[in-house]
Amino acid sequence: MPKDLTQLQLLIELEPVVASQLDRHLATAKEWHPHDYVPWDEGRNFAALGGVDWDPEQSRLSEVAKVAMITNLLTEDNLPSYHRTISEHFSRDGAWGTWVGRWTAEENRHAIAMRDYLVVTRGVDPVALEQDRMVHMTRGVHAPEYFHGMLHQVVYVTFQELATRISHRSTGRVCNDPIADHMLARIAADENLHMIFYRSLAAAAFDLAPDQAMESVTTIAKNFAMPGTGMPNWRRNGVLMVKHGIYDLRQHLDEVLNPVLRHWNVFGRTDFTERGERARQELADYLDKLGRDVVRFEEQRARILAREAAKAETRDPARV
């Protein structure tokens, strides 16, 4: 029976993959600048500089768009915590360290662009946004109890980067503003390249240590939570985003979990021992349950939206 590789052995064995994927990423990634995605001519001073402070009437964003933009931005804001986490699980040296630095620099652009857009267009209350940022970043993010080493982290960020890409694209569509849609599509393209990097790294880990990789995938899939968990108004905002399809269970199953698992050939591999087979069966059982949960969720959401539409028609028949 093959022995588990230590964290150090995994880091050493996977470094050539990190180096090749880093080269691929640098050759593929498109240079872009946050200031090119902000309508600066809409900007004006706030009261501290003789202007007018924010008023809800100034925003062109719907309630759903506001919530989604704030949630996505505050998630991006916690970059210092994410940097700490991946640098602790990876390495600050060699190709690993170069990737950690490059990934951090690219992710930082997302918060810069989104905040500049929201402040300049007065899309959300900048005071409330700053207060929530202070709370969220002070709390930070901490790896949950089930995180045990680099493989768990690589698997998690593979799913998370893809989920974030979907959330940004969905948010762009509900903003009803071509500038916001274009900006968030650009950010989503970054997230997709990051996902490809981590997905490729995890694929190499499957070939190197299949049982360990399989156990990591099962653990992360069953316990997955978005990194914004715990930010102010997280539960309320999350419910609204789920209800309006910014990111929901169906997307998580059909657009994140299943495509990535197919790429890794999780259910077609023949190199597992009994231990890996147990983890794979546990994952299969979980996906079956999740599929049933998705159907129930969609039926419940349809009923809720139908009731809300009926109430809206009763209040104002001309709107329907």
TrEMBL record:
Keyword Transcription regulation appears in the UniProt entry: no
Task: Give cofactor(s), names only.
Answer: Fe(2+); Fe cation
Q: What is this protein called?
A: Putative acyl-[acyl-carrier-protein] desaturase DesA1
EC primary class: oxidoreductase
What CDD domains does the record tag this protein with?
Acyl_ACP_Desat
Tell me which residues bind Fe cation 1.
E76, E107, H110, E191
MF term (GO), any: stearoyl-[ACP] desaturase activity
Family to which the UniProt record says this protein belongs: Belongs to the fatty acid desaturase type 2 family.
| Keywords linked to the UniProt accession | Fatty acid biosynthesis, Fatty acid metabolism, Iron, Lipid biosynthesis, Lipid metabolism, Metal-binding, Oxidoreductase
Q: What processes does the entry annotate via GO biological process terms?
A: fatty acid biosynthetic process
Quaternary structure, from the entry:
Homodimer.
Q: Cite the PANTHER family for this sequence.
A: ACYL- ACYL-CARRIER-PROTEIN DESATURASE-RELATED, STEAROYL-[ACYL-CARRIER-PROTEIN] 9-DESATURASE 7, CHLOROPLASTIC
**Single GO cellular component annotation?**
cytosol
List the InterPro entries.
Answer: Fatty_acid_desaturase-2, Ferritin-like_SF, RNR-like
Give me the residues that bind Fe cation 2, please.
E107, E161, E191, H194
Q: Which Pfam families match?
A: FA_desaturase_2
* EC numbers: 1.14.19.-
Query: What binding details are noted for the cofactor?
Result: Binds 2 iron ions per subunit.
